[in-house]
C-alpha cells in the first residue's frame, strides 16, 4: 500500500517512508491511497485472537512493505504484560440512563493514558522504517503536547537507539501530574521544554520547524532527520485503528453483537481529532459503526464545525479541567477532509485559508457527508464535574475528566436522537489519577487541600481504588527539565538541545 500527501496526490511513498518522515514536505499529512476491507468473516476470525494477534493482522493490511516477522516483532515488544498489566484495551460495562455503555479503557499502560496504545509501538515501527529506507540518520522526534502525548512519547522513545526526542508543552496548559510526569522523565535521549503559550502555539511551532529548510539542513549536517510522535505521524495513527476493531470483536464474543453487521456507536473525547479519525478509518474498513460521536469541552471548535461546516479558530481559548482537549487547531481534521472531498486542491485551499484567516467553510456535499457520519456535542467544566460525580454515585465508577466529557456528550446524543438501543463504545482516555485534583473535587463536592500526592492519597482513600503504580512512583522522582521558551525560540532551542546549533 502506498501513501500520499493530503495536499498533493501525485507523489506516493511506502509506509516505511511515511512513518520515518512523519509529515509531508509540503506540510500535508500522509493518508492511505485506499482502505483495506474487513468482511464479517474477517471479524469473526479476529474474535478468537488476542489483542496482539489482532494488531498484527490489522497492521499488516496497512504496512504492506513490512514483513510478517517485522510486524510481529514490533507488536510483541510494544504490548507486553509488564507494560500493560491485565492487557491493553480493557472494557467496563456501565448502565447510564437506561443505556449500556462500554467504556474502552485505553489507559492501562505505562503512562496511564490512551497514547500508550500507539506510542509503545511507534518507536519500534520508526526504527524498523529507518532500516527499511536504508537511512543511517539519527531520528529527532519533535512532539507538541497538551499533556498526555508528551509523557507517552517520552516513555516510548526512552533510550531507543538512533533517536532523540524533544517535547514542548504549554507552560500553564497541562495538569500538575502531567507536568510532573514529563519533567521527571528518565532517559539519556529525552528533553522537555515548556513554551510561553497554549497547545496550538506549540503544535504550530513544531509544524513550522518540520518544514523549515534551514533547520532541516542544520540537522542533516549532523547526521540527523526529523520525525514526529504526534498523531500527524502515520505510525501513531494506524495502531489506534486496532482498538476500535478489537472492541467490536470483544462485543461479538460477549454476545452484545448478535447478528452480522449490527452497528455500534463510538463516542470519543476529542481535541486534535486523531483518536476519532482512527475510529472513522475503522468504519472505512467496514466496521459497522452507526454514528461517530465527537465530544468536546468548552473549546468546541470541532462541535461547531461538524454541525455547520464552518471551522473557525478565531474564538476565546479556555483552560479547562480536561486540558488534553484544550485545542483550537485540530490537525487530523485535514485527513478527514482529504478522504471526503477526494481532492488535494480543495484541501490545499482550505488549509491555506485557515492559515491566512483562521477559518474556512466546506461545501454543501462535504457537510452532508460529515453530518451523516458524525454527531457532535460539548460540555463545560461544571457538566464534566457533575458527570464524574454521578458516575461514581450511580455506578461506583471513577472516571477522568476527559472520559467524562465523552459520557456526558453521549447522553446528549441519546436525548436528541432517542438512540439508546445501539451499543455504545466510549473511548476512556486517561486514568482519573492523572487529574486527581479535579476528580477528587467532583466526587467529594469540596475543594481538596494539600499537594498533588496528598490529593491522590485522599482520592484513593475516598473511593477505595488503587493508585496506578506509574503515578505512585512519581513521588520519589526529582524534576530534570525546567527550561522554557517562546514559540519563536523553538527552532533554535531544538538545534541546541540535539547538538546541531551553529557555534
SSE arrangement:
Blueprint: E1 3-5, E2 8-13, H1 15-21, E3 30-32, H2 40-47, H3 51-62, H4 68-78, E4 90-96, E5 99-105, H5 116-119, H6 122-132, E6 138-144, H7 148-157, E7 163-170, H8 176-183, E8 190-195, H9 199-210, H10 213-221, E9 224-228, H11 234-253, E10 264-269, H12 274-284, E11 289-296, H13 301-308, E12 310-312, H14 333-341, H15 344-357, E13 359-361, H16 364-373, E14 374-378, H17 381-395, H18 401-417, E15 424-428, H19 436-444, H20 452-463, H21 469-472, E16 484-485, H22 490-498
Parallel strand pairs: 5-15, 6-7, 6-9, 7-8, 8-16, 10-11, 10-15, 11-14
Antiparallel strand pairs: 1-2, 1-3, 4-5, 12-13
Helix pairs in contact: 1-6, 2-11, 3-4, 3-11, 4-6, 11-12, 14-15, 17-18, 17-19, 19-20
Task: Describe the structure in your own words.
The chain has a domain at 90-110 and 235-434: 3-Layer(aba) Sandwich (Rossmann fold). Helices cover 46% and strands 17% of the residues. The chain has helices at residues 15-21, 40-47, 51-62, 68-78, 116-119, 122-132, 148-157, 176-183, 199-210, 213-221, 234-253, 274-284, 301-308, 333-341, 344-357, 364-373, 381-395, 401-417, 436-444, 452-463, 469-472, 490-498; strands at 3-5, 8-13, 30-32, 90-96, 99-105, 138-144, 163-170, 190-195, 224-228, 264-269, 289-296, 310-312, 359-361, 374-378, 424-428, 484-485. It has a six-stranded mixed β-sheet with strand order 4-5-15-10-11-14, with helices on both faces. It has a five-stranded parallel β-sheet with strand order 9-6-7-8-16, with helices on both faces. Strand 6 (138-144), helix 7 and strand 7 (163-170) form a beta-alpha-beta unit. Helix 1 packs across helix 6, helix 3 (51-62) crosses helix 4 and helix 17 (381-395) packs across helix 18. The protein is globular, with a radius of gyration of 21 Å.
Amino acid at each position: 500500500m502506498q501513501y500520499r500527501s493530503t495536499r498533493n496526490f501525485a507523489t506516493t511513498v511506502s509506509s516505511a517512508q511515511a512513518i520515518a518522515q512523519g509529515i509531508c514536505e509540503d506540510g500535508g499529512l500522509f493518508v492511505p491511497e485506499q482502505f483495506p476491507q474487513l468482511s464479517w468473516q474477517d471479524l469473526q476470525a479476529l474474535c478468537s485472537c488476542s489483542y496482539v494477534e489482532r494488531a498484527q493482522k490489522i497492521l499488516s493490511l496497512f504496512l504492506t512493505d513490512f514483513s510478517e516477522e517485522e510486524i510481529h516483532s514490533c507488536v510483541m515488544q510494544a504490548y507486553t504484560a509488564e507494560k500493560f498489566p491485565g492487557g491493553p484495551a480493557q472494557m467496563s460495562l456501565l448502565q447510564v440512563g437506561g443505556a449500556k455503555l462500554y467504556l474502552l479503557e485505553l489507559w492501562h499502560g505505562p503512562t496511564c493514558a490512551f497514547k500508550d496504545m500507539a506510542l509503545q509501538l511507534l518507536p519500534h515501527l520508526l526504527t524498523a522504517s529507518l532500516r527499511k529506507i536504508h537511512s543511517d540518520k539519527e531520528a529527532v522526534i519533535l512532539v507538541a503536547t497538551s499533556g498526555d502525548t508528551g509523557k507517552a512519547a517520552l516513555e516510548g522513545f526512552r533510550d531507543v537507539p538512533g533517536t532523540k526526542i524533544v517535547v514542548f508543552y504549554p507552560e500553564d496548559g497541562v495538569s500538575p501530574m502531567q507536568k510532573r510526569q514529563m519533567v521527571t522523565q528518565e532517559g539519556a535521549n529525552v528533553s522537555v521544554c515548556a513554551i510561553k503559550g497554549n497547545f496550538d502555539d506549540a503544535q504550530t511551532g513544531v509544524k513550522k520547524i518540520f518544514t523549515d529548510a534551514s533547520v532541516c539542513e542544520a540537522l542533516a549536517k549532523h547526521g540527523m532527520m526529523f520525525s514526529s510522535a504526534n498523531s500527524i505521524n502515520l505510525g501513531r495513527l494506524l495502531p489506534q485503528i486496532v482498538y476500535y476493531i478489537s472492541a467490536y470483536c470483544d462485543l461479538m464474543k460477549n454476545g452484545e453483537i448478535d447478528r452480522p453487521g449490527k452497528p455500534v456507536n463510538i463516542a470519543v473525547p476529542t481535541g486534535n481529532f486523531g483518536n476519532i479519525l482512527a475510529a472513522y478509518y475503522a468504519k472505512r474498513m467496514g466496521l459497522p459503526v452507526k454514528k461517530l460521536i465527537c465530544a468536546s469541552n468548552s473549546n468546541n471548535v470541532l462541535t461547531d464545525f461538524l454541525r455547520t461546516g464552518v471551522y473557525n479558530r478565531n474564538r476565546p481559548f479556555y483552560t479547562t479541567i480536561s486540558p488534553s482537549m484544550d485545542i483550537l487547531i485540530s490537525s487530523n481534521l485535514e485527513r478527514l477532509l482529504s478522504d471526503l472531498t477526494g481532492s488535494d486542491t480543495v484541501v490545499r485551499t482550505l488549509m491555506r485559508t485557515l492559515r491566512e484567516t483562521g477559518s474556512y467553510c466546506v461545501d454543501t456535499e462535504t457537510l452532508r457527508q460529515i453530518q451523516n457520519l458524525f454527531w457532535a456535542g460539548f460540555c463545560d467544566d461544571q457538566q464534566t464535574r457533575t458527570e464524574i460525580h454521578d458516575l461514581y454515585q450511580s455506578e461506583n465508577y471513577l472516571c477522568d475528566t476527559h472520559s467524562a466529557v465523552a459520557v456526558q456528550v453521549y447522553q446528549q446524543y441519546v436525548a436528541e436522537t432517542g438512540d439508546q438501543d445501539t451499543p455504545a463504545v466510549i473511548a476512556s482516555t486517561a486514568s482519573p489519577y492523572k487529574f486527581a485534583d479535579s476528580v477528587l473535587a467532583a466526587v467529594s463536592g469540596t475543594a481538596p487541600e494539600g499537594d498533588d500526592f496528598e490529593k491522590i492519597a485522599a482520592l484513593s482513600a475516598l473511593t477505595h481504588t488503587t493508585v496506578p503504580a506509574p503515578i505512585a512512583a512519581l513521588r520519589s522522582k526529582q524534576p530534570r527539565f525546567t527550561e522554557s521558551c517562546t514559540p519563536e525560540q523553538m527552532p533554535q532551542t531544538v538545534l541546541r538541545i540535539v547538538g546541531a546549533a551553529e557555534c
